[in-house]
Design a protein that fits this description.
Elements: H1 9-46, H2 49-60, H3 62-65, H4 91-100, E1 103-104, E2 111-112, H5 125-136, H6 141-154
Antiparallel strand pairs: 1-2
Helix pairs in contact: 2-5, 4-5
The structure holds heme C.
């Protein structure tokens, strides 16, 4: 006697499909916390000094110093990009300027008073190093090479 409702291939397939959906849904609900943790970890692993510096720069510097494009060498506040003169200062001079708001006169190396706020206390040395790493991304290869040379000549270590 044939079964009144034979199990068709299609019926079995649908059953398996529903089971798979239930399992997937359970996994998804159960693992959103784990997924978020993995995503945070991934972000952290992929962050570079430049990308961290870019965030600091957007918040603390871009309002006065502008972004990667535009400007001229005579702008005040100076542009940090390839059109400005930031690349003509060594790393230690840039860091001192950002930390203590003192412009280092290239001839005498005497700190001068400045119209820029000091970031000491608001940014630590790692933040300042990252911001300088980001500023470097706005320069041309030649400017980067020349500034590297300056840093070797003028900065200890
Ligand atoms: C309120 C405006 C203002 C903010 C915000 C500001 N600066 Fe400045 N900055 C200036 C001015 C003005 C000068 C020009 C020097 C002077 O007047 O003494 C300057 C000069 C500089 C210089 C040296 C000049 C050069 O060659 O580029 C550096 C480096 C610098 N700023 C970096 C930064 C960084 C990095 C930040 C963010 C962490 C920042 N500044 C935030 C106004 C600002």
């Amino acid at each position: 006697m044939p079964r009144p409702f034979p199990r068709t291939r299609l019926g079995m397939f649908r059953g398996a499909w529903i089971a798979a959906e239930v399992v997937l849904l359970g996994l998804l609900i159960g693992s959103t916390g784990a997924l978020a943790a993995i995503r945070d970890r991934w972000d952290l692993m992929n962050r570079t000094p430049e990308s961290r510096g870019a965030q600091v720069y957007q918040v603390s510097c871009a309002g006065c110093h502008g972004g990667p494009a535009g400007g001229t060498i005579t702008d005040q506040p100076p542009k940090h990009n390839a059109n400005g003169h930031t690349w003509q200062h060594a790393d230690c001079e840039l860091m001192q300027m950002i930390r203590d708001s003192t412009t280092v006169s290239v001839s005498s190396r005497h700190p001068l008073a400045s119209a820029m706020p000091a970031f000491r206390g608001r940014l630590d040395d790692d933040d300042i190093r990252d911001v300088v790493a980001y500023i470097r991304t706005m320069w041309t290869d030649d400017q980067r090479a020349s500034q590297r040379q300056l840093t070797r000549e003028r900065c200890a270590g």
